[in-house]
Structure of PCI domain-containing protein:
Amino acid sequence: MADPKKQEKDFTKEVESLLPEAESLATAGKLHEALDKIYVLEKQTRNASDLKSTTKLVTAASELCYKARNFKALNNNINTLSKKHGQLKAAIQAMVEQAMGWLEDIRKTEGTDTWLELIETLRTVTEGKLASDLLSELQVETYSSMDRREKTEFILEQMRLLIALARLKDSEIGKDGKDSIGGGEAEWVKVRVGGRKVNEEFLKDKANEACDDLKLKYYDMMIQYALQQSSYLDAAKYYYKVWETPTIKEDVNGRGRVALEHIVYYVVLAPHDNEQSDMLHRLFADPALVKLELHYALVKCFTTPELMRWPGIEVIYGPHLKKTEVFSSDKLWEDLHTRVIEHNIRIVAQYYTRITIARLTSLLDLTQQQTEEVLCRLVVSGTIWARIDRPVGIINFRSSRSPEDVMNDWSSDMQRLLGLIEKTWMGVNAAQAAQSRALKAAS
């Protein structure tokens, strides 16, 4: 298919002259001769970018096949014309819309087989977009006559088609020097909406163990959505729910191990926040992780308040991690490097109130510009508080305090000090009283 370009010639007269002749031939039982004549002129109109004439010819050819009730010729005609080099999109669209208008009549008069053959032809021509659009628009969750499993299966099929269409649109971005605005973003949004229609409690219910296949299919598609959005924490949570499935968890050396490994990968890739930190520490405390020595050690690095030198991380974990499907991507490996840097900056902020830029750059194994970029990102996100004094080259990790704050802290400290003094005084008095009683008893 090609986008319309400037029309080079107008074939209106030739088309108006040919169509009655072609119709006469088809009426006389010479359908293929009529089609051959149309194809010859169609090639000329297509190459000249005469959209109006091309559309008339392709729809006329289909109509001749339909009137002759030759549906094999109709399917071949639609396939052939749609695959012509440089075929105009609008002409194909008109031909498909025309054929869709005949579907109901064909189903009633010719039977289901012929009807399905034409639908399959249209599906092939539209690269599956027709079927995807029809299925994705159905609000199956409102159908009370369907049982829960059937509804869930249908919604999952909607999601699968939407993901396939979204990836197709995403792959078309940048082809022929053009960008497809938004790519498959609209379809990815529909995937998320579809995911919310699935009742996760129904999938988790132990009484519905027969639905484990649906549960795994659902979370597989939600993982695809999360990774498309670079939502690593969501991906980790979905893998965790997969891992919790009894049939998966029991497969310690197979699917269970794979799921647990992916939980580790994506939880360490997720940006630091309270939820990520909580999941990371709960994962570290899980006895199942101890069996995966390398992954246990990696999680331990992120839960221990100590610096991680990136060159050391590359040497220890790089050879194994880069062989995995996750970290074979340069983007995700760079994201891991970023998380190590952010971890190190948080640790430095815990132990230092002030540090020189040169020293921090050395600790992070970065250039000064890279150090400042990461530091600024953490400050903007609210992860740490910091200010850079460029003239003197010092970073402050403690904000200046108001006199009221200082006095409040002093007052609190004094109260604690007086409390300790009072407690000590009472202890001394009790000891002296006990000593006095002991002396009296001895005398």
Notes: The chain is about 70% helix and 0% strand. Residues 1-127 form a domain with the Serine Threonine Protein Phosphatase 5, Tetratricopeptide repeat fold (CATH 1.25.40). Confidence is low (pLDDT under 50) at residues 176-181.
